[in-house]
Amino acid sequence: MKRRGMISGYLFTILTVFVLVVFAFPLVWMLLASFKTQIQMQSTSNFFFFEPTMKNYVQVFQENNFMKYIYNSAVVALGATAGGLLLGLPAAYSIARYRMHGLALTILIARIVPGITFLLPWFILFNNMNLIDSYTALILSHMLVSLPFIIWVMIPFFESLPNEIEEAALIDGSSKAGVFVRIVLPISGPGIITSSLMSIIFSWNNFLFSLVLAGEKTKTLPIALFNFISYSEVNWGGLMAAATVITLPIIIIALFSQRYVISGLSAGAVKG
Amino acid sequence: MMIQTKKWLVLGVSMTLVAGLLAGCGGKSTPNASEGTETASNANQPHKGKKLTVYLGNLPLGNTLKTMIPEFEKETGMKVEFQSFAEDQLSQKLSIQLTTQASVPDVFMLRPPQEAKLFAKNGWVYPLDELARQDADYDFGDFSESATQANVVDDKLIGIPVLLDQTVVYYRKDLLEKAGIAVPKTLDELEEAIKTLHDPKKEVYGFVARGQRSALVTMVAPFLFSEGADFMQGDKATVNTPEAIKGFGRYANWLKNYGPPGVLNMAFPQAWGIFAQGKAAFFIEFSSSYTNGTDKEKSVVADDIGYAVFPTGAAGSKPVSASTWALSINANAADKDAAWQFIKWATSKKMVGTLQKEGNPGVRDSVWNDPESTSAFPAELVEVTLENSKIGIGHDRPQVISVGEAREIIGDIVVKAMLGEDIQAAADKANKDFQALIDKEKLK
Amino acid sequence: MALKWLDKRLKWVFTLPAVLFVALMMVFPLGYTIRLSFFEWSMSAINPPKWVGLDNYKELLSGERFWHDFGITFYFTFAAVIVQMVLGVLIAVLLNRKGKGKNVAKTIFLMPMVATPIAMGMVWLLIFEPSIGVLNTILKTFGLNPLEWLGSVNQVIPSLIIIDTWQWTPMICLLLLAGLTTLPQDPYESADVDGASAWQKFIYITLPLLRPTILVALMLRMIDALKTFDIIFATTQGGPGSSSETLNIYGYILAFQNFKLGLASSLLVLFFLLVLGMTLGVIWLRKRLEVAS
């Protein structure tokens, strides 16, 4: 019995490693490519062993104002996520507790509408309000992507929280809103972090809305990425270096939040 | 503003309120061409203090413009703000802004063979005839005839060409030498050479070129021209004539029989990748991207590339020699003369010379005739370019309003032929669809 | 007092801001698009849109291209979502096991989703490239036949599904992992007492308990898969020929390459109705399952 457990344990570990290798491969490819010249990148022989070059990164940071784009992307992604959480968490809670599924569907429509539908109307709207090339317009547009997502991810999460905790608090004389803020939100850590992370990622990678609503001042990373694709050549090296740079901040956020998800998990288990 | 937007004004106002409430952050600003309030005190700087917004396509010449702009700013006292976009994105962004009659950008790049008619018809561009011809120093007559042609719509000049694109046959000198083959002069000879050098076991393919449906149209064009065919004659679609089918068929067969695997998904970057990695003997592509082959960090065959004029077919050698990019003024730009000052500067003899010295083929004859300005180009390529300018055809795609749609229809003939379908049937269908498109445009 | 007032109306006070925001952001674009779908317009700034009634819809619905793209959209979405759901559930359970390096493993696994789709499209373009790409080199070292991947009419959709699966399976995992944290421990403890195997516990306890999360993940993924744009546009632009052209790609081509905004609008309306219908289907399924259990 015990031996069988150990064998299956090894098997699971091997399986996990295999899955990770497969899924990490394109990113490893990208990372290696960002240190390669175009010849090395398109050659089929020297995949792992090559003379690395820093030229691509020099291009990304010297010839392009990438720090500014990172800042812009961060402002927009965090702004849209904060806004999404502010509106989304109470809504999701209410929908879960009062089973307002029709309302949930109405909000989901924002995600169902194909993105290009919004481009021209939003330009007209925000241009009239003088908001083109402003963070406000970008944040509002990205919020429309993240809000339905946050709400729908949180609904089953709130539904699965045991009612007893809230009821106990209500008997103690707390208000419903107070229970939500003081008791429900803290034990919903893993869900909130997961949905925030996703929301940040969606906003970070959003291209279509940013292309139309951003200008030189608020240009975000995905748009800057196209600096490396020109009419007569693709700067593969610069592109890979830029793509690596774009990915890094989110990975750092993911690493930190993973830790928090785990601690939130154990906290939740104690209370549940 | 557009008429229908007014109906939504009420909603717009309420949106403003909500937007203000929800997000208190974010600066409001739209760049404006007439921001400057300083009055022109200096006669040499009538536009002093004005700000221009310029949208560029991602072209190497954009970088040079950006580094040279302080000179222009000092000279005129204006400020210039550049934004660059890849071609699809530029087109998308421009269409959205111009249709709403936004005054930004003041100046933008467009692709005349692809968009000139549409932009003119949609009232997005300001006619440049007077501005361009008023100034003797500017010497508009210096621009090569075939290049300006695509920028004239209904007798109005709507853009100043900035880049010259010509069909070039790139080939591997070393492979030809080894096999004892002379540089092919006719399409039949080229076919023989491709056949001889095709060696898939060693991963050297006889021929590579674009195989993506829309992308390939500009490359198959000289195959048609050189057989005496064209996409259309007057208002008649002519993509199923025997000559046209011969041209389409040749291109399709070469790619199908002697091309690398997966050629159906190739646009210029992948095709260049194959050639630069030494995996193809012959390659047909525009001249403006030649640095993909000569740059030693991109190409393993940098020293072995030869350049040849497009071989002759039944109707002679008819390569493309067209201006694929131009600078235009927004029809709603606040100050057209200020905008013109930028274009005038960017396309002056001096600037075109500077740009050309860095490997950006321009369209001024005087510059091409100045040996110094061609120093960046391989000598052979300069010869080919000068020859192409004499014999070249000024368009590389059908000259209709809906070029995008027409390219899909026409590219389909080659794709179907490569997939082994009957080319005559494919061409007949395409001709019918293309004719319907032309007829529909005529009605408007 | 204020709190009491709030408690009574909590249901609406909590939901209204979100609904209002969505409505305000969408009413104009939706109305604008629906209206434009009855017009013909090349985005001209001088000629206003021309009323054509239902002609745009007729043109689309009677044309081969719409139905071809409709088929491609479904083929891609169904295959991709099924593969991703199965993989997603299995990998989530795999990653949820206790062990060393779990956090690192999880983070590595989440990275594909983080990488910008456009950039990853370019990466995959080179990986898949039949002559100079690394994938065929790998196949050849294992003595397998190289494939044409994105350059073949038949292999292009499976190739795109590989990209999509690589990128979005992690999202499903992430959602399920969060869901797994809320599962009660009691059923597992009693199952242990009964001597149930790991597989039995997975089938009879984990899956049913996770069902609400799985269905939400399925629905969100399905909506996004139907709308897939970035990776297709970056790798094939809908080619070879039109063998990977989905409705969303067609909509983009109509609007911003052919500048037929009226026709594009009617396509977007039809496409919207389609995605809405599919979503309602999943919600209906969810209700049915809820009643059944």
TrEMBL record, chain A:
Pfam families: BPD_transp_1. Keywords: Cell membrane, Membrane, Transmembrane, Transmembrane helix, Transport. InterPro entries: BP-dep_ABC_trans_perm, MetI-like, MetI-like_sf. CDD domains: TM_PBP2. Residues 70-257 form the ABC transmembrane type-1 domain. The keyword Transport applies. GO terms for biological process: transmembrane transport. One of its GO terms (cellular component) is plasma membrane. It is found in: Cell membrane. Belongs to the binding-protein-dependent transport system permease family. This is Sugar ABC transporter permease. It comes from Cohnella abietis.
UniProtKB/TrEMBL annotation, chain C:
One of its GO terms (cellular component) is plasma membrane. InterPro entries: MetI-like (IPR000515), MetI-like_sf (IPR035906), Sugar_ABC_transporter (IPR052730). PROSITE patterns: ABC_TM1. It comes from the Bacteria. Signal peptide: none annotated. Keywords: Membrane, Transmembrane, Transmembrane helix, Transport. The chain crosses the membrane at residues 12-34, 72-95, 107-127, 263-285. Residues 70-280 form the ABC transmembrane type-1 domain. Pfam families: BPD_transp_1. It is found in: Cell membrane; Membrane. It is a multi-pass membrane protein. CDD domains: TM_PBP2. GO terms for biological process: transmembrane transport. SUPFAM superfamilies: MalF N-terminal region-like (SSF160964), MetI-like (SSF161098). Belongs to the binding-protein-dependent transport system permease family. This is ABC transporter permease. It comes from Cohnella abietis.
